[in-house]
Amino acid sequence: MFEHLVITAPDARRAKQFEELIDVRIRTGLYPREIAFHVVPDPPGRVGSGGATILALCALLKKANATAESFFPENRVVLLHGGGESRRLPMYAPEGKLFAPVPISTSALAPPVLLDLHIASLMHYPWTERAQGVARGEVVVASGDALLQFDPHRIPPREPGVRGIAIPASYEAGSRHGVFQLDPATGAVVDFHQKKPPEFLAEHAAINAEHCAMDSGLFAFDAPAACSLVALADQITDGERLGDALAGARLAIDLYREIVIACVARESAEQLAERLGEAKISADTIEAIHQAMRSHPLSAVAPEDCFFRHLGTISDYREACPEMSHMRAFYSRAQGEVPASSSSAIVMVNAVAEAQTTRHASGMVMENCLDASLQPGPGPNMVMGVRGKIPGTIGPGICVDQRRISCGDSVTLVYAETDSLKPVGGLDQTMFCGIPVSQWLHERQLQPSDIPVDASSIDLIDVPLFALNADAAMLSGYWELPADPSGWAKWFKASPRISMVQANDRTDPLRRDEERRAIRRRLLRESILSDEGWREASSHDVAEAIDKADGELLRQRIDGSTDPMHRQYRTQTLARVFEDGPPDHQPLAIAIRHAPHSIWSTRQWDLPAEGSIIARAPIRFDLAGGWSDTPPYTNRFGGHVVNVAIDLNGRPPIEVRIRRISEPVIAIRSCDPDAEACIRDVSDISGFAQPGQALSLVRAALWLSGIRRNALTDRSLHAILAEAGGIEITTHAKLPTGSGLGTSSILGAAILAGLHEAMGMPLQQPELIALVLELERTLTTGGGWQDQVGGVVPAVKSAITLPGLAPVPAIEQLPSALFTDPRHTERMTLYYTGVTRLAKNILQDVVSQVNDATPAYLYTVDEIRRQAGLARDAILAEDLDAMASVLNLTWRSKCLIHESTTNELVDQLLHETRDHWCGASLLGAGGGGFVLFISPDKQRALALGELLERREGPAGACLYQMSLNIAGLTVERD
User: Which end of the chain, N or C, is surrounded by fewer C-beta atoms within 10 Å?
Assistant: First the structure.
């Protein structure tokens, strides 16, 4: 996905409003934390789409305190132009087109907006990872009022230069946009035509008998092209710096006309100047653009099944609503619990309203309407913001746009789709409510002076036509001839009135956003109480939608729930809503197939008289996917991890020894750290739910294997041991506590495997993996399944589970070349930071956030799971550079999981060593432990090792030698 989303705003005031609307969605956990949002105001005056692009990218570099050459190769950027005044879509002028509501069903209280669909479309655009020297950076520029959706998997790998997305369109449609002229044989771009007549396109740019390849407004610049584009700002043209001329609106550059055409390889500077013809830029500026962009060839790709709609006008928006209703927001997993209804007659979004449709009515959209009642005519119509009843029948093409504005006033704007929302001339040429203004005035016995307006030149949006606090009964007089024209004229002239521009200035977008949110609270509550919802909405949103009076009914719903995952989610939600108990941080109970008491059924040890049973295991490197293996996420959505079994300093670091002893006790010893205890009775097992204590793992394993009162039938532990004999269990974990290498789970696996072998009941891999999950839950650490997979199963593997109560990993062994071939291993460095931590407090927060169904949090874990697929691909391709890129992505995602994933010491370490590695990640949950570095080459890896050996870090910080383990967990008799 992309890391930066830059949005241009018409001015500084709108930029602040955009930021506030985005911030609301970030604070409520809706928008991904992986995306950094930036809003950049356009300068006063017109600078063109190209000028706005250059200025916005320069602002991004300034904010990042970076050069283009360092930033663009490593970052993926989307730049959405937010548009200007939204004259032709006036009902959403206060928010801007990007924040125009869209009629899709979601489970969020935040009203879905057009920006959400843009993010959904571009989130999975074929963003590349760095692989085999190819930079991952790219800048995608798109228009905020052109909605484009396509299957990203059908987009071929990018080509150098500038690439556009083309869509088949009629010659008539192409004449209003840019069009690619393609080579019929190769599909290469031969030329690019901007707003040429249909006849010209039919002759020069046809792709078949009826269509041309119209540009969708989306163009992707690779890193070198983005650098060249930004470098234009420093060019001196016409005696001043080009960037200064743009900032002062003394120059306007069109992205699609001047910049894209300059990328056509065959153009010379003279040809480009001739081509641009009537362009309002000088030859000096054209020469600068040509020099900057000529080495970045233009290409195009036409995805199949591409959806494209321009949403710049009222009719565009209204006609697209039924089609958009089938789309899904990027934060939605299901169809949505706050519905948006759509039919051939009416589309309702953020609305609780009654529209008495007839069989003739069609094409009506109602949005932000609460308890509204109206009688539509034959349509089409748009009705926005209405509260209460509107008398009469709404005329064809009429829009009713009601606003709550400042100072407690309200105003209802009435206009038609065909109205002149841009200046076109005098009263006879300018249309209002579907008829010329001169006719509208005459029919209502009004004079031009009553408006007032200049009869020879009129800009409709500046005319004070709309009465403040209008009586609903009078509104129909705008679109139909009043029964009493003189009476209506008297009311009109006596009413304080404002213009459309004034209404826009006095309409607060945040307040309108909250109005829609209030309606959605009501709809979500109805969905929850009817039991049609409450499966996806976040705890935060549910807490807003319901109150304590709903509690008894909802608790009954929980008691009657047969789905344990929904029960867990709902229990967590109610705990947060009613604050009548701490949220349950425990993951779901895992159904294990091994009966806990069966290990003691024989009451005999299968142990040699003098020797021992020895279980040895490697540790694991989690390369990608960690946290997707952890309940309840793995239960609800499945998991995918890629990890490696590793020996340290030439041997498996984890060892468990079990031997007979003469005394009828279970003696347990830990060598790392040093501790021991003697178990004579069941009560000696207690206290194991203390993660981090040296002997807790052994005690929990004994308890899980059946040493508890209800599993030992009628005999005491002492009596059983007196008959079977005592044993000594000794554990070695030659690693520091909190190493991040899965030590606890893998050591637990070795203990359980050794115990079962000692009883003559060896465990198979699937049983052992499931049993360790239960062991972690018994210890209250929770935990997932990847650690035991990493240590039990040898070498390099990819493991996937499907959603379900009992995760059963499907394990795929991967090629080992990246971890055995000296060309690759000599670039890897393993370093212990000297900082230790326990993952339990992180785990509790992860479980809580997943149970809360916070969309942004779930998206982070989704990304982590996706990164496992990228790691698998890198390993299969034997591409260590791609693996380094995945490590960086993984580390970034881990840091978003929890604030304690990193700290000042870790940040300082990564900063001090940054010149020596191209990929790095702390292994495990982070916060300390081991860090794996991948350097660009052997020399920098050696330099990194020398730096780390000289570095004054915390006590115990040191380098480790690592090697691939090809045996996994082994159990032997010595």
Answer: C
- CA 804, CA 807: separation in Å to the nearest integer? 6
Q: Which ranges of 480-609 would DSSP assign to H, the alpha helix? A: 485-494, 500-505, 509-529, 539-545, 551-559, 564-578
Residues in contact with 503: Cβ distance below 8 Å, sequence separation at least 6, in sequence order: 403, 405, 411, 413, 466
CA 962 to CA 948: how far, in whole Å?
A: 16
Total Cβ atoms within 10 A of residue 408: 7
Say if residues 384 and 399 touch (Cβ distance below 8 Å).
yes
Tokens matching residue 912: 């001090």
**Total-model pTM:** 0.90
**For residues 150, 25, 92 and 3, what is the CA-based torsion angle, rounded to 10 degrees?**
-40
- Strand pairing class (431-432; 497-498): unpaired
The least confident of 183-197, 431-445, 574-588, 923-937 is 574-588
- C-beta separation of 588 from 632 below 8 A: yes
Relative orientation angle of helices 12-27 and 509-529, to the nearest 10 degrees: 20
More confident residue, 783 or 614: 614
| Sequence-separated (6 or more) residues with CB below 8 Å from residue 185 | none
Number of H helices, E strands in the chain: 33, 39
- The Cα 861–Cα 627 span in angstroms is 7
Please choose, from the candidates 368, 404, 362, the residue with its C-alpha nearest in 3D space to the C-alpha of residue 383: 368
Residues 6+ apart with CB under 8 A from 298: 161, 162, 163, 164, 189, 192, 260, 263, 264, 265
Buried b (16+ CB within 10 A) or exposed e, 720-747: bbeebbbbbbbbbbebbbbbbbbbbbbb
Of 67-71, 235-239, 762-766, which gets the smallest average pLDDT? 762-766
Q: Which two tokens stand for residue 113?
A: 């907006």
